[in-house]
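Researcher: Go.
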Amino acid sequence: MANNEVKFTNRDDQGQEEHNIGFCGFLLTGLSLILVVLFFPFSLCACIKIVQEYERAVIYRLGRLLSGGAKGPGLFFILPCMDEYKKVDLRTVSFDVPPQEVLTRDSVTVAVDAVVYYRVSDATSSINNVENAARSTQLLAATTLRNTLGTKNLAEILSDREAISHFMQTSLDEATDPWGIKVERVEVKDVRLPVQLQRAMAAEAEASREARAKVIAAEGEQKAARALKEAAEIISESPAALQLRYLQTLNSISAEKNSTIIFPLPMDLLQGFIKK
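Model: Structure:
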């Protein structure tokens, strides 16, 4: 284990420190400097490069990474025929994850797509540690989306999108950290269900709404009957109140402009018949 740790440290030092380029390297470097001096100031066009504020330049001299890490922003100097550099964009980039056919934990096939936002946090690692950082991140995002949704039920996918997005962002960020990639955000865009399942869910939702409507109507009838019972008990205590209720009903009927008017019969006239 100790030997492995020493080797890993040496590999890091190779990317951060000057290396022994040998006699041929010194010879080529001297020739390059002589050419720069001989053709000065025309050689400045080939030696001076510029990178923008949002860019960094990773420089290789005779195939070896120069010490000091990525250069920029601003001016930097290279030797003709000796140095090779690559520009890296540090701005946030987004890409769409194509719709993925996923079999959920409750055996439902859904098509889910997402969008990922990421940026390069370490220009040197994004060039040295992976061949194509953008392409690798896209493939990894598609795989992570399928693996994550495969452990969820359909109800969880439809209701817990925020939690799924956060879990995917954390997983992608950990996996792409050695590549110098920082995943800033992941959003699940759309969940497409089979047509038959959509119809079944619509029928279930409609039945649920109808059941709730019947329960609400029954509760309303119960409250109305209870209120009517209480009103009847109050009116029964005073015959005059019942008569006033009759007159109020007559007033309501007359306001509707009906051709037939019904006069309520006072209950006092029926008391004798009721007793008999």
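Model: Strands lie at 48-51, 55-61, 64-65, 74-77, 83-89, 93-103, 109-120, 181-192.
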